[in-house]
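Re: weekly structure request thread

Next one in the queue (403 aa):
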Amino acid sequence: MKMKKVLSLALALSLALSLTACGGNNADTSTPAKEDSNTEADDSAKDDVEEKETPEENADDGETADDTSSEGGADVSGKTVVFIPKVTGNAFFEAANDGAQKYAKDWGFTVEYEGSATAGTAEQVEVINKAVASGADAICISTVDAAGVRDALMEAKDAGVAVCTWDSDAEADARALMVSQGTPEILGQMLVDMSVDALKKRGVDPEKDEVNYVWHYSQATVTDQNSWQVAGEAIIAEKYPNWKKVADNYYSNQDAEQAVTTGAAILDAYPDIDLIICNDSTALPGQLKAAQNKGITKDDMTITGFATPQAIKEYCEAGVLYEWGLWDCGIQGALGCYLAAYIAAGNDVAVGDKINVPGIGEVEVMANDCLNEGDTTADKNNGVVLLPERVIFDETNVNDYNF
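Done, posted below.
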């Protein structure tokens, strides 16, 4: 089996952003990555959440299994982190919790997974307030609405609770560290590259043919998905002026049933649409289900986006799409919780600092403007940590993953 790792351009961009302290959108992100950038999947990339290496297996450089601190930092063991998803019951967030629980057991602290089956701001505020009242040491949250939860997070910080984010950011001054799956440029490029590749596979010339397309994702208030859409639009405008966006973005509010009905509405309004980009782990399976219900296959229409491999496997096997992508959400969830516990333990970090996370590896703190141009970064305990890689899934590697 071969795994398509994210494209060499994305890695180059990540390096370039690191060298410039993530200084906004200056890197050249306009050139699609080349097909020959794929590499053989290594064993660690194929491992599922339960099979990731433990601190005992990574005890190099003198690190022992009992060492849950980082480079002499204060010990994270014994801390309690409230881990807040956008919505419970979603495969992405449940897999992130699986990873967080597994690693936290090795690290010696408690992760309490608290959320709501409804992706709403009021529900997240209630969970934040409950975490503060319970005496939790830290919060790690994927926000539904950064502005909507700001006051609650600021109150949590004032109460002495460490606040970190993952997946979807808060406003930068309302949290310490953000664990991001990639910059908007990296992820926008990935969405466009998958679209281009799938269009080619069904005989469409992305550079010459008119391509009618639309975006379908969760909400207009979700920081991460909106930034990817904006970056993707910029790439399309520069590289594919022949593409035509036929409608404003469609939103399904991270509701599984609404994602199907919204997907069907797109297909009813634009039966001959060429491309639907779903940069949301609920919208993508919903859109694919709507297409399957109408007998649409991957050779009739291109649908792609971000979701867990197992959530899309049935549609891949049924021939409804060629490819889609994501990252290891189990590692992302675990890393977010570790950094929250790390800050709660009294450790201070600044941009450029490197943190050795037992069982995961070394990560570097980067400036906030790598995610949002113009964002400032406080002198300490404020910044962004990027995941090292992303993955493209298709029929050749979908069975290598169980999340």
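The radius of gyration is 20 Å. Residues 1-70 have pLDDT under 50 and may be disordered.
Next request, please.
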